[in-house]
Amino acid sequence: MSEQLQAPSPLIPIPRAPAPEIPVPAARRDVQITIDGKRVTVLEGATILDAAKTLGIETPTLCFLETLTPVNVCRVCVVQVEGSRPLVPACSRKVEEGMVVWTDSERVRLSRRVVLEFLASSVDVSTALQLQAYMKRYEARPEKFGPRAATVVQPPKIDNELYVRDYSKCILCYKCAEACGVDAQNTFAIGVAGRGFHAHIATEFEIPLTDSACVYCGNCIGVCPTGALMGKIEYDMRAAGTWDESRQTRTETICPYCGVGCELTVHSQAGQIVRVSSPLDHSVTQGNLCIKGRFGWQFTQSHK
Questions:
Q1: Which class does domain 244-304 fall in?
Q2: CB of 218 within 8 A of CB of 162?
Q3: Residue 28 and residue 42: Cα distance in Å, rounded?
Q4: What is the pLDDT of residues 191-227, one digit of tens each?
Q5: What is the pLDDT of residues 86-103, one digit of tens each?
Q6: Which of 38, 70, 107, 268 has the most Cβ atoms closer than 10 angstroms to its Cβ?
């Protein structure tokens, strides 16, 4: 019999396979804990940071972001848990029934103060506004280490027209590496190389960024808390002394390049677009954009 005769007839419908069933998520029980003397009930699996937010307790964070996997490296969110010898990171430690937590004890404040002093004594925090606010809150004095404190001073890397890498401002929060990896872009163009004080953000095999797998989406810029990664236009304006956020306006719009529907926040100053970002709570972008959405707006300022 020929192969043509063995083939199924298009006139005879093929039986459909069973429709896949979405598994029902396991029910989560309520967990009751005490934070700073106040009892709170949260769902099982929540973190101490989540529970603290329900009470309106502001916990400082630098390496944490809602859209990224916690990596527990900055240690400014540590809290004191009764029965635990070390302080624990609030951003990743899951709540347990009956847990008693102190978020502002003298031991916690001292730990946060020392961490901030170490960071500010070794990196340039001039554009890290949130970190500066934390330093004031915890009375951090990085100058006590003296002028000979080891730093990561180095010239900025300017190798493209889209963004600048100034690693003298890098606190190694890992956010850029996480955003470039599985949490967002899945490009893996950058990661952490070296150990100890020599640890630093680098491309694969330390090759130039222009030769790496980078697709210039700029999502690393969007998550950087210190300005170590910054758009080229903003960098140039800051160098010229013309960058002034108090004079900038923000306009919410939709990216015009495709049909995905990414929401943009357009930052403009003196009638010129100076930066484009995206809100973290947007259901489509979660703060992430592609190269066109983040950088492809120069045509609006063309006079041709």
A1: mainly beta
A2: yes
A3: 10
A4: 999 988 789 999 988 898 889 999 999 999 999 999 9
A5: 999 999 999 999 999 999
A6: 70
